[in-house]
Amino acid sequence: MEDADAIDRRPIVRQSLHDAVVSRLRDMIIEGVLAPGTRIHEGNLGRELGVSRTPLREALKFLASEGLIELVPTRGAVVRRFSPKDVRDGLAVLGTLEALAGRLACENAGADDLARIRLLHDEMMRLYAARDRLPYFKLNQEIHAAILRSGGNEALSYVHGILQARLKRIRYIGNDSPEKWAGAVADHEAIIAALEARDADALARTLEAHMAATWERVRDAI
Amino acid sequence: MEDADAIDRRPIVRQSLHDAVVSRLRDMIIEGVLAPGTRIHEGNLGRELGVSRTPLREALKFLASEGLIELVPTRGAVVRRFSPKDVRDGLAVLGTLEALAGRLACENAGADDLARIRLLHDEMMRLYAARDRLPYFKLNQEIHAAILRSGGNEALSYVHGILQARLKRIRYIGNDSPEKWAGAVADHEAIIAALEARDADALARTLEAHMAATWERVRDAI
DNA sequence: ATCGTGCACGCTGCATGCAGCATTCTTGAT
DNA sequence: ATCAAGAATGCTGCATGCAGCGTGCACGAT
Question: What whole-number distance in Å separates Cα of residue B198 and Cα of residue B212?
Fold first, then answer.
């Protein structure tokens, strides 16, 4: 039995350096600071990040497992390039995963989950009205992640997150024309409606269509 | 044009030590040599594998990204435990992924792919008749992987492979009763029939049902 | 001038060294 | 005997050292 009024024993969240470096590198890749095809120089990049080669190398292995980086023997790490086919295939899988997540969400999401997603949605619409593109984009990602989480399947969230990370950059590039953006917004209205109605079939269909449309929106940008 | 009688130019496949250690560790975890919950001692394990701590640590990070290992700050690496819910959720995702793969396979698989899968299937049935359990199990995995590959979606194969690795051990434990085994075999007859008929809907349905049945077969073993 | 060869540099891959923290054993006090 | 405090041990996390390989450049031969 735990002592009720014991002092706070939570670990000092010295977020491990490993996690910090992984996150940082992932962001650098997604944001394009490290462009696809870039060969990573361990010495320079380590110096830039303020860590030695060892933890940097460990972070690179981690990201290689996620598929964001390729390890070429005797040549080190290279930022992975995604071909149009890679993107299309990835979006197809994401569509299927989100469709499943939508079904689970209709079944398992609590009222609080729905309320939170509604808030995110409304805020995102406000950002759309203001044409505030980057925050819109981030909130968009958050909404999808929230739907995933509310389904309550951790393995699903995990694989979704990996594919999501791979395609994040490309999807951001995609929404550049006003019509495409309006189309994506319309999709989202349908999504939130189906979710709040807990109409699993409609939500699954809508999410999958949203991904298919995403491909149409980005295909020329690649 | 290649010179016909040129000397063998294949690269000397000095498989990188990293890959070797990763594969080796993955096998040890799947086979249960490293049991779930085991805390990994870098010094000992490294000595046992004949590598120093550095490449071992890098391999551990790689596997942590796959979810086979957890990294606990200041305590190192621990072999991940999967709860019954983890297994159930993972199988649900696998079912959806295989259903998609089945559709893609019906659409994209070449005649040679189908022929190869048929060969694997027949060989597996031979092993079933002989009740040769471990080879049966391995061939079973191969068949599913072959269906995945024949769909031609690399992202799909990738995420499937990760979840597959997580659950491999548990699925092996599952098929221990004769009735369960017979049920799995029956599933596979339906799978190959639908595939050869290129009946996408039927194949998708069958594969998903196969996964649901897998859960029923293993749920008591966990 | 062009092609081939050898040398030098730079980078990766791995081993080892070292500091810091957690855990456990020991010792002393109650 | 029990418990607390301190010391010692052992492990992780990170830095650095070193060998081997790949690459590019210079020099020489044709």
Answer: 22
pLDDT in tens, B103-135: 999 999 999 999 999 999 999 999 999 999 999
How far, in Å, is the CA of A71 from the C1' of nucleotide C9? 23
Q: ipTM score here?
A: 0.91
Map out the domains of chain B as residue ranges: 17-79, 84-221
CATH superfamily of B84-221: GntR ligand-binding domain-like (1.20.120.530)
Dist CA A63 CA A53 (whole Å): 15
What's the topology of domain A17-79? Arc Repressor Mutant, subunit A (1.10.10)
CA of B1 to C1' of D30 (A): 29
Beta strands B69-72 and A76-79, pairing class: unpaired
Residue B72's nearest nucleotide, by CA–C1', is: D12
> Which pTM was predicted?
0.91
Sort out which chain B residues have CB atoms less than 8 A from A57's CB and list them: 58
